[in-house]
TrEMBL record:
One Pfam family in the UniProt entry: Beta-AFase-like_GH127_cat
GO biological process: carbohydrate metabolic process
InterPro entries: 6-hairpin_glycosidase_sf, 6hp_glycosidase-like_sf, Beta-AFase-like, Beta-AFase-like_GH127_C, Beta-AFase-like_GH127_cat, Beta-AFase-like_GH127_middle
All copies of domain Non-reducing end beta-L-arabinofuranosidase-like GH127 C-terminal, residue ranges: 529-640
Keyword terms, alphabetized: Hydrolase
Domain Non-reducing end beta-L-arabinofuranosidase-like GH127 middle: 438-512
PANTHER family per the UniProt record, alphabetical: DUF1680 DOMAIN PROTEIN (AFU_ORTHOLOGUE AFUA_1G08910) (PTHR43465:SF2)
Molecular function as annotated in GO: hydrolase activity
Stretches assigned to the Non-reducing end beta-L-arabinofuranosidase-like GH127 catalytic domain: 16-427
Coiled coil (residue ranges): none
Name of the protein described by the UniProt record: Glycoside hydrolase family 127 protein
Length: 644
């Protein structure tokens, strides 16, 4: 594989999202999401689950008496919220949040112990047990999200108080963990700090942070298995009852990460680890780690990923299972997992200058990540099913984790601020740059003003491909600047043309020289189509799904009546486009297709009887999957029975 390291995401403040769909969601982050989530962090939203996040910090800081409440890793909700705030500030829409952010940063400083330790659970409840439960304690996971928030806030504001808090904690971790005698030879139960330490290295220049990240990856999977030995020593006294079935596959400790060939275990932890591995491969020019990343990426995207970019097919322990095991109604597909998959795929795409990795970034973003938040920005999905029958989403059953409607908040609320920070930083996924080029990785209408080397470049992209139009990119740069524009040609664009000529790609990009004022028109056909799954995906055998561009479509009860499982469609049926739903954002077309409804199966009202099938013709209406459950609650289905 060729190694390259010059491509980096553009700075978030250099972009402006104008797209009718994504622009609306990005604007909502500052207008609605950040204020709403701040109220949730303070437990001031009636009728939703409390998380006790800010209250825990106040107790740890000695500002009020009390015990720790909520999840053991609750601190990270605040850290991800702060990171989203930082991205909003850098984007130019979050200055009003600076006083609140600075106030809560001061609270965090009060809660931090003199040696740099910061974790409200252990500080309040059991300070003598620090670092004794790496499997479940999430101290290193929390440190990782603190670091990410600190780097983002420093980049956005230039203020270093939060960065200093993070460095003090990271320095303590560095003094505590490592291969040297006298240090703890453990590693995170929940990966995250590894990718964060790489970010901290980049902003501080301190190589020891990079080395610590590498140690955590390289130590994982060695023998004896640190986490399993730790659990044996606790003799079954677990924080999480479900960890009675904890194993080395769940923890990705069954073998060294560089030797792993299949994505296993907790899906979020896995892709956070793979993201760190991609970062380390790039920073350390580590071919072994790069090969592992490529192998793991291929395993996910060819055998263990949903059509929506969701990952994690088991509702139990939120984990990967086996190749092609992709059930539609009882999977997990956590929103955080798709965020992590976006991060991993972005790193690989920029590292290898290969546009195909952005196929996965776009798939996850346009479906699962966007679907995780309501159009009004105050409701969230933690689990993202492809089929919902609300009546069977019952508590105390195997379906209890599936919620048929988005929730106002969660006692474990990792997903809402994760979605917020992703949308707030969307520009870094649309554009990247090198010393002499700008890369357009997704067709999302937006503006960019950036420095490429010592040259100033302006870009205005108008993308109307979902409604039969072209993608027009206007670039302004100095004359004879020697710059190029590299545009990803996505998999769904048929017969792609660039300024009227057939597109010629290298690693999925077309290259256009930029000279003064340059206009690039990307044209082609983006058709609504039926998609089938590999026959080894047993849940989807004999079924088809609808897609247009990167968007998966789904049927909802509000348009198609109840018992969606009784609907059939021919893969040869013509698909017509209709006007967008007025109540839904984004100006995305609805799809109409002629199908059939099975209205009778037996001649009696008994539970079973002789077959007596009778079908009726119906017109089926589909809307973009990310917009489901924004009108009336009810059934939803992506995969339909095929009449072949």
């Amino acid at each position: 594989m060729d190694m390259t390291s010059s491509i980096t995401p553009v700075r978030i403040g250099k972009t402006r999202i104008t797209d009718p769909l994504f622009g609306a969601y990005v604007d909502m982050v500052a207008e609605k999401v950040i204020p709403y989530q701040w109220e949730a962090l303070n437990d001031r939203i009636p009728g939703v689950e409390k998380g006790y996040c800010i209250e825990n910090f106040r107790v740890a800081a000695g500002l009020q008496p009390g015990h720790h409440q909520g999840a053991i890793f609750q601190d990270t909700d605040l850290y991800k919220w702060l990171e989203a705030v930082a991205f909003c500030i850098e984007y130019g829409a979050g200055e009003k949040f600076v006083p609140i952010a600075d106030e809560v940063i001061a609270l965090m400083e009060k809660a931090q112990e003199p040696d740099g330790y910061l974790n409200t659970y252990f500080t309040i409840e059991c300070p003598e047990k620090k670092w004794t439960n790496l499997t479940e304690g999430h101290e290193l996971y929390g440190c990782g999200h603190l670091i990410e928030a600190a780097v983002a806030y420093y980049n956005a504001t230039g203020k270093d108080k939060l960065l200093n808090i993070a460095c003090r904690f990271a320095d303590l971790v560095d003094r505590t963990f490592g291969a040297e005698d006298g240090k703890c030879h453990g590693y995170p139960g929940h990966q995250e700090i590894e990718l964060a330490l790489v970010k901290l290295y980049k902003v501080t220049g301190e190589k020891r942070y990079l080395n610590l990240a590498n140690y955590f990856i390289r130590q994982r999977g060695t023998k004896p298995n640190y986490l399993l030995e730790e659990m044996k020593g606790r003799k079954g006294r677990n924080v999480f009852p479900e960890f009675a079935e904890y194993d080395d596959l769940y923890a990705q400790t069954h073998e060294k990460p560089v030797e792993q060939t299949t994505a296993v275990g907790h899906a979020v932890r896995a892709v956070y680890m793979y993201t760190a591995m991609a970062d380390l491969a790039r920073e350390l020019d580590d071919q072994e780690m790069l090969r592992a990343c490529q192998t793991l990426y291929d395993n996910i995207t060819t055998r263990r990923m949903y059509i929506t970019g969701g990952i994690g097919s088991s509702g139990k322990l939120e984990r990967f299972t086996t190749d092609y095991d992709l059930p539609n109604d009882r999977m997990y597909c956590e929103s955080c997992a798709s965020v992590g998959l976006m991060m991993f795929s972005q790193r690989m795409g920029n590292f290898l200058e290969d546009a195909r990795f952005y196929d996965t970034v776009e798939r996850a973003l346009c479906n699962t990540v966007l679907g995780g938040i309501s159009k009004d920005a105050d409701r969230y999905f933690y689990v993202n099913p492809l089929e919902v029958w609300p009546d069977n989403c019952l508590p105390s059953t195997s379906m209890s984790h599936v919620k048929p409607v988005r929730q106002g908040w969660f006692s474990c609320a990792c997903c809402p601020p994760n979605i917020a920070r992703t949308l707030a930083s969307l520009g870094q996924y649309i554009y990247a740059q090198s010393d002499d080029s700008v890369y357009v990785n997704m067709f999302i209408s937006s503006k960019l003003d950036t420095q490429v080397g010592d040259k100033t470049l302006g870009l205005d992209m108008q993308a109307d491909y979902m409604n039969g139009g072209d993608v027009t990119i206007r670039v302004t740069a100095p004359e004879n600047a020697g710059l190029t524009l590299k545009v990803r040609i996505p998999w769904y664009l048929e017969n792609p043309m660039v300024n009227g000529e057939k597109a010629v790609t290298h690693r999925g990009y077309v290259t256009v020289p930029v000279n003064c004022d340059t206009q690039v028109v990307i044209s082609g056909s983006v058709k609504a189509k039926f998609v089938a799954a590999n026959r080894n995906v047993r849940a989807d055998v004999g079924k088809v799904a609808l897609m247009k561009g990167p968007y998966v479509y789904c049927l909802e009860q509000v348009d198609n009546g109840c018992n969606l499982a009784s609907l059939f469609v021919s893969p040869e049926a013509s698909i017509s486009e209709a006007a967008p739903e007025e109540s839904l954002p984004g100006n995305l077309p609805t799809l109409l297709v002629s199908g059939e409804r099975l209205v009778e199966t037996i001649a009696t009202h008994d539970l079973y009887g002789n077959p007596a099938f009778r079908m009726e013709r119906v017109t089926l209406k589909a809307i973009p999957y990310p917009l489901w459950c924004n009108r009336e609650p009810g059934e939803m289905m992506v995969w339909l029975h095929a009449r072949v």
